[in-house]
Design goal:
The chain contains 2 helices and 15 strands. Helices cover 15% and strands 40% of the residues.
Length: 151
Amino acid sequence: MFIKKIKRLIYVKLARRLSKSNTGAPVPSIVSENTKLIGNILSDGIIHVDGAVDGDISCDELIIGIKGSVNGSITANNLQLYGVLKGKAMIDTLFVAKSAKLIGDAIHNTIAIEPGAYIDGRCMKQGDPIPAEAPKPDLMLVDKRSKNKSA
């Protein structure tokens, strides 16, 4: 019990020191390992999930830990996935660790995937058309000259 308190205190102090703001860092919101949250989360800061979240999350940065899982849609600037995500993610920067499982689609600007990561879905760059929604060509050009030369 004493060691857990010390680890928590060190984590909070480290988070405040690494902050970019001069007023002191807000402490990340943490969904701990033995916690299940049902509902949506909206935050301007950092959220760290080591438990289970059944709902949508919108935040600046989301870290889904090795034992964490999210079942819902995610909107964030930065997503670091070490656990399980089942749902759609709209993010700017995506990191998928080798321990991660991404089941669903991810729309991103930049992506890094470690070898061994499990992905069942699509990873698409923002702005690219979804393959099923891509427009079909109106007309097709065919070069008949190559057929005439061989005959």
